[in-house]
Amino acid sequence: MLFLQSLISGLLTGGVYALAGMGMSMVFGVMNVSNFAHGDLMMLGMYLAYFAFTLLNIDPYLSLVLIIPLAFMFGYVLEKVFINRVIHHPHQNQILLTIGLGLIMSNSALLAFTSDPRILTTSYSSSSFTVFRDVSVSVPLLLSFIITCGITALLYLFLSGTRTGMALRATSQNREAAQLMGINVSRITAIAFGIGTALAAAAGALIAPTYYIHPLAGHSFLLKAFTICVLGGLGSVVGATVGGLIIGVVEALSSVYLSSDWKDVVVFVLFLAVLLFRPQGLFGKKGDQ
Amino acid sequence: MTRKLLCIDNVSKHFGGNVAVSEVSFAVEEKQICGLIGPNGAGKTTLFNCIAGYYPVTSGDIVFNGLNINRKRPDQVCRLGMARTWQRVKPMSNMTVLENVMVGAFASTGALRKAETIARQELLVVGLENYAGKLAGSLPIGLKKKLELARVMATSPKMLLLDEICGGLNKTETGIILGIIRTLRERGVTIVFIEHDMKAVTSICDNIVVLSSGEKLAEGTPVEITANPEVIAAYLGGGSSNA
Amino acid sequence: MMKQAIASAFLVVAAIALPLLIGDNPYVTGILITLLMMATLASAWNIVGGYAGQFSFGHAAYFGAGAYSTMIMLSVFNTNPLVGMATGIVVSSLIALVTGSIVFRLKGHYFALASIAVAEIVRLTVLNLDFTGGAQGILLSDVAFLGLDLNSKNPFYYGMLSCLVVTLGITAYLRRTRTGYYLQAIREDQDAAASLAINIAYYKNKALLISAALTSVVGSIYALYIRFIDTTAVLDLRLSIEILLTAIIGGVGTLWGPLLGAALLVPLAEMLRSNVLGDAMVRIGIVSETSPIGMFFKDGLAHAHVLVYGIITVLCILYLPKGILGLLRRGK
Questions:
Q1: Is pLDDT at A287 greater than 60 in this prediction?
Q2: Which has the higher per-residue pLDDT, B161 or A211?
Q3: Would you call C181 and B75 a contact, using CB atoms and an 8 Å cutoff?
Q4: Which residues of chain C have pLDDT under 50?
């Protein structure tokens, strides 16, 4: 029963991780940039949800309607102003630039919001319902999982069904060829970063009701998002979905059967194991590494 | 007496379901210049990458100087005496021309002075001695090709694999490079080179191997090859003869 | 060449004489020790990050390995500090070898990612084990070494200075050897390097090992100097990033860049931390001490040095990709 219980909560949390991983994978696939500010963008999403709730009294899940377009615009501008200029630089420069941007975000948050962790408590924060004997499901986790599924489905529809979505996939396959086919690659790149940011912020907002909200919260999520991407194959959005679920379950199981102190260690060891044995990821093409 | 320095025996390379090279066999004799030609996508560069240790072969054997090198890494292959150049030149842009060639020379010596002496000699051979202190990234393409040659020659190879060393060059530049290649042969280096320019190939090669769609189409002297109707069909019918 | 050698010799003599000029001023000596420490760490990072082009985001692991090994050997086994230092070198070399053997076969982003993962594994392991002191850290009341007065800061100043001289010496020596040329070749183009008989994984591992061992020694000296360590102080991701930014901002892949970076950033951070800037603003009268803005500058700037690092990094990448040293050279 304990196994089933942790499996379920792991899958539910994993869904939200998947969202963050998908955002990073999208940016990596289209731009070939490892976005080290991704965790900090999640942190901004957490604070947005927090302030929407405390100041405007908007339910954190409902606030996504505001947060997603806002974050998209923020990401779009960030790309146009900063990232765009290093897109043809060596990847170290891209990493450093995103690190710099991340440091600016997290430390500005530290100045503005102080280092005191905040907690977003809704009326249903600690409520749960029993599904089967002593297996229960937490309401906020379930809600965020359902919303994650919705966002994921929309993203798939967008990627497969719209012109922009197809242009995104084409650019991800081969940037030069996409440009030759008449795709406005620089616009697509900014859109990709916008979507990546929106997904990160959405993931942040979705976990806000169940986590401490803290200016440096992004760091641990950054590593998780990377693990998810590498697990799923860098650049593969489908892979990131599965990668997220796997990480969620691994975390939940290791905190039950090992100890919650060691769950992050397990995740990072898994990350190294993937690099050692299957560097192209579970869904990546061989030879990509 | 000539001796076979490189034997390609039934080599195939598959990428997933794609067959890039299929059961190709040929041999290169010592001090020969062997041309490897074929239309785009014939598998020439893939075969080079297999020989030089960048791709593992799917099946078959590659024997260099009496040693099977199927499972050797690129650096080990180079140490055994087989060096290669790149179709898209790969200069170490933020190092000087001299330093680039010294990196090659360090394959045979650990001493800085000696490496510098070797490097300066090779720069003289290709006519880059006046560019020694320039950053490699700042050279025009013609000189970058010469730098590639000087750099691989500095490793003192028995055999050179040249991948479109004349690609993107004009007639004069091509002439100069071909001249350098001839002097290299006089130094006892065996050469295999990929080339699109039929004139360049026929003017310099002792033996030519023609690949098409991953398979060996023909092999022979330049005279035989230029008269071979299958080769003419593959080249002219392939529609990529100008590439 | 000759000029550089004379200039370096002059610099070393000046650095040796400096504490005599300062006299008994623990505050200034403390800042100088931090400066020398960051310069050494950034220079050590530069061997693998700058010359071999393999950006490590986890150098705190090697620093922490040195610090923790020294403290544990001292407090548990009561050994000579040198034994602790040697243990640190062994431990950090092992960490480097594990990291290197996993990722140095792969290209591009992977080393950056794996170095963070390894550093986090080390941090969390130290945090969760008992003999490492866990979250409490390790406190050392007293330590003796060669009869030196370790309550004075001067021995540590000279310790860090020796580390810096050794690290810069190794870097300068490497640049004139096959290994140095090979590392730069790997940084420039990995495929081309392999085609010139360079065993990529071997040379990357060699660079990382040298870098890790030097970093670990600095960690050991730091532990003896502060005599209290915990994971936040010596194993945090923040430290890894500060090390790397110091090298980048100064000038990556150059001999003097990391030292220059530390010489600029450490005093700047200290000015922010000690509120010199905030106080100055109040004193000059730009802002009033009681106004909200004044309060913000007074309290806020003390925590802002990482923010400033972030801004400088972004500016450097966009406008000075070769660091401040590159700017100085261009100006010539």
A1: no
A2: B161
A3: no
A4: 332
Identify the pLDDT of residue A285: 54
Mean pLDDT of B12-34: 90
Helices within chain A (DSSP H only): 2-31, 38-56, 64-81, 91-113, 139-161, 163-173, 175-180, 185-207, 218-232, 237-257, 263-277
Report residue A134 as tokens: 């002593």
Which DSSP helix (H) or strand (E) runs through C161?
A: helix C154-175
Contacting residues of A for C52, CB less than 8 Å apart: none
- Name the minimum distance, in Å, from the CA of A134 to any CA of chain C: 31
Among B94, B95, B107, whose Cβ lies nearest the Cβ of C197? B107
A-C CB pairs within 8 A amount to 115
- What pLDDT, on a 0 to 100 scale, did the predictor assign at position B240? 43
Look up residue C280 and give its two tokens: 């100055």
Residue A36 burial (10 A CB sphere; 0-12, 13-18, 19+): buried
Q: What are C23-70's pLDDT values in tens digits? A: 888 889 999 999 999 999 999 999 999 999 999 999 999 999 999 999
Give the count of alpha carbons within 13 A of C62, CB side only.
32
Cα–Cα distance measured from residue C196 to residue C175, given in angstroms and rounded to the nearest whole number: 18
Question: Are the Cβ atoms of C124 and A86 closer than 8 angstroms?
Answer: no
Indicate if the alpha-carbon torsion angle C167, C173, C175, C181 is positive or negative: negative
Q: Are B42 and B212 in contact (CB under 8 A)?
A: yes
Identify the CATH assignment for A2-115+138-277 out of 2.60.520, 1.20.120, 1.10.20, 1.10.3470: 1.10.3470
Q: List chain B residues with CB under 8 Å of A286.
A: 16
Provide the shortest C-alpha distance from residue B27 to chain C (in Å): 22
C1, two tokens: 């060449």
Say yes or no: C248 contacts chain A, CB-CB below 8 A: yes
Percent of chain B with pLDDT strictly greater than 70: 96
* Closest Cβ–Cβ partner in B75, B102, B152 for C194: B75
* CB-CB under 8 Å, C128 with A261: yes
Sign of the C-alpha dihedral computed for residues B185, B191, B193 and B199 taken in this order: positive
Length, in residues, of chain C:
332
B166 Cβ contact list (under 8 Å, min separation 6) = B145, B173, B174, B177, B178, B195, B197, B200
This prediction has a pTM of: 0.91
The answer, yes or no, to whether residue A83 has pLDDT greater than 50, is: yes
Element spanning C182, H or E: helix C178-188
The residue-averaged pLDDT of A215-230 equals 88
Domain ranges of chain A: 2-115+138-277
**CA nearest neighbour of A61 among A210, A206, A198:** A206
